[in-house]
Write a structure and sequence with these properties.
single chain, about 110 residues, mainly beta, SH3 type barrels, two-stranded antiparallel ribbon, 4 strands
Length: about 110
């Protein structure tokens, strides 16, 4: 991690469940809001380019902006390992306290 490292918050639909994820990025140049009417489908460039991770392409200040498809960036197994939708309903152990230590009874 560096002084440029940022956490990007992603909102996506995974297996029918609205999900909020945090992704660590080495650097973020800018966060912009694009009008949906200006977003076009990703072009077919070559077989080596993985367009399934890109939901569209927009333009901002004359520059192309790739719009990632958050739902395809991670597999369900990866999300489960990170505490994704499968673990959202998990509850902490009754003996755990807010500071992570054991309470006096446990």
């Amino acid at each position: 991690q560096t002084v440029h490292t940022r956490i990007i918050v992603l909102e996506c639909d995974l297996e029918g469940e609205p999900t909020v994820l945090g992704a660590l990025a080495d650097m973020v140049h800018e966060v912009v809001e694009l009008d949906n009417s200006t977003i076009e489908p990703p072009p077919r460039i070559s077989s080596g380019w993985r367009s399934r991770f890109v939901s569209g392409i927009g333009k901002h200040n004359g520059e192309f902006v790739l719009i990632l498809d958050a739902a395809t960036l991670f597999t369900v197994e990866e999300l489960t390992a990170m505490g994704g939708p499968a673990e959202q309903g998990a509850t902490p152990s009754p003996a755990a306290t807010a500071d992570g230590g054991e309470d006096e009874e446990g």
